[in-house]
């Protein structure tokens, strides 16, 4: 069995479409289709259901995912370790992280990887908590940075990187920024949140729903920058890590809403304890702990 077929299958599951997988891998769509069909013939079972909503793995496809990840990881390790035990690091490392970290914290990690291991291909993908953890379990990714409050994943190795202070933010002109407020006050405004799966946005949605009279007004976005711009123009309030809004707080385009209590969140680094690590993955983990493990921004001063 060619491992390239497994790699294509993983891409289709990830993208939920043959077209998306072709774009990710640089193939024409007919090649992706041929790869999947060849894999299904070799295994003697259907692996994907082609539905109007996208390509969805069958029960057999779900069983194949973790095995495919293990085989591809083994292939990568053999390519690196068998030809030469020493020498420059090479190969590929895949890291997933929430969009807020990708944009604001990871450029320094990417630069360090290029400096220390220019021969390593680092692939960075944005993902929420659930998708990131499943990617590690399935062997699709080598490591995941996750923002969460008290993450419980006993089957995975979870390293605490740093605490991540959060803040409720609004335009400086908002009445919410004057005096201390409660979640009931915040619930009167439109909540500008990130997509479902973002732990701190989901936590804020739960707190708002508990404090407000249904229906609580909320909008979901896929970008931290979009959320900040909407909040700065007075379209609503948002909850974000302080580190993503330091510049906005400093230049006065956003202000802190004092009073509402937020659950403690942290950045954690997740890997699979059952997979044999590689020197490139070990380097990524070490650099992430060293470079990202410092202060994540102090809690902003709040109005008394």
From TrEMBL:
Any idea which GO molecular function terms this record carries? DNA-binding transcription factor activity; transcription cis-regulatory region binding
Signal peptide residues are: none
Tell me which UniProt keywords the record has, alphabetically.
DNA-binding, Transcription, Transcription regulation
Where do the HTH lysR-type domain residues begin and end? 1-58
The record's section on SUPFAM superfamilies has: Periplasmic binding protein-like II, Winged helix' DNA-binding domain
Keyword Transcription regulation present in the record's keywords: the answer is yes
UniProt-listed Pfam families: HTH_1, LysR_substrate
Q: Show the InterPro entries listed in the entry.
A: LysR_HTH_N, LysR_subst-bd, WH-like_DNA-bd_sf, WH_DNA-bd_sf
Q: PROSITE patterns given for it?
A: HTH_LYSR
Similarity section: Belongs to the LysR transcriptional regulatory family.
**Full protein name:** DNA-binding transcriptional LysR family regulator
Q: Which organism is it from?
A: Modestobacter versicolor
Taxonomic lineage is: Bacteria, Bacillati, Actinomycetota, Actinomycetes, Geodermatophilales
